[in-house]
Amino acid sequence: MNIKIADLTFEPLIAADAIQARIKEIAADLNKDYADKAPVFVGVLNGCFMFMADLLKEITVPCEVAFTKLSSYHGGVSSTRRIRDDFDLMTDITNRHVILVEDIVDTGNTLDYLVAKLNHRKPASITVCALLLKPDAVEYAVEELKHVAFQIPNEFVVGYGLDYMEMGRNLNGIYKRVV
Ligand code: 5GP
Ligand code: MG
Ligand code: MG
């Protein structure tokens, strides 16, 4: 069913059960790769909150959970390239294995910035896990991006943590803008 948020209409793109199935696969890989590494999962707010929660419910290895907050879209439907550092990661990641959890990689600008910033703190490793990737929009290739749940067309999406004008984050599936 289509939904309306403010002036835009959205149609279903990825169903809730498909998201949950992919999360189980990614978690299985991470459980294998991080068995004795006590990783720190770092969620990038606000968009990561649902993905982070559902992913972590499937993680069985000892781990820490932390958050940071960045924003770049500022209410619109395309990247502004101006990254705002809303709050910093407070956990000491020196010599720790970090798993960054992102909602979506669009141009890659935000991720490129965040990975460079965290690398200054000398972690043992950084791996990025993103729910969505828009391959046709990528301008900054981030080599740390190892796990992607879904590749999607270069269109504006909402739901499952992602917003339009701060609305739609509560939807349990992903919806794309009808153009
Ligand atoms: P990038 O820096 O990779 O261009 O953009 C990353 C950030 O822009 C994401 O973390 C997300 O907050 C926002 N963003 C990118 N594409 C979309 C989209 O299709 N829908 C929504 N709601 N936000 C997006
Ligand atoms: Mg994000
Ligand atoms: Mg947003």
Automatic annotation (TrEMBL):
Localization annotation: Cytoplasm
Domain Phosphoribosyltransferase, first and last residues per copy: 18-164
InterPro entries from the UniProt entry: HGPRT, Hxn_phspho_trans, PRTase-like, PRTase_dom
Originating organism: Mucilaginibacter ximonensis
Xref: Gene3D superfamilies: 3.40.50.2020
Pathway per the UniProt entry: Purine metabolism; IMP biosynthesis via salvage pathway; IMP from hypoxanthine: step 1/1
NCBIfam families xrefs: HGPRTase
Enzyme class: transferase
Taxonomic path: Bacteria, Pseudomonadati, Bacteroidota, Sphingobacteriia, Sphingobacteriales
Entry-linked PANTHER family: HYPOXANTHINE PHOSPHORIBOSYLTRANSFERASE, HYPOXANTHINE-GUANINE PHOSPHORIBOSYLTRANSFERASE
Essential cofactor(s): Mg(2+)
Family recorded in the similarity comment: Belongs to the purine/pyrimidine phosphoribosyltransferase family.
CDD domains the record matches: PRTases_typeI
Catalytic activity: IMP + diphosphate = hypoxanthine + 5-phospho-alpha-D-ribose 1-diphosphate; GMP + diphosphate = guanine + 5-phospho-alpha-D-ribose 1-diphosphate
EC number: 2.4.2.8
Domain of life (superkingdom): Bacteria
Gene assigned in the entry: hpt
Keywords: Cytoplasm, Glycosyltransferase, Magnesium, Metal-binding, Nucleotide-binding, Purine salvage, Transferase
Protein name (Swiss-Prot/TrEMBL): Hypoxanthine phosphoribosyltransferase
Any GO MF annotation of the entry: glycosyltransferase activity
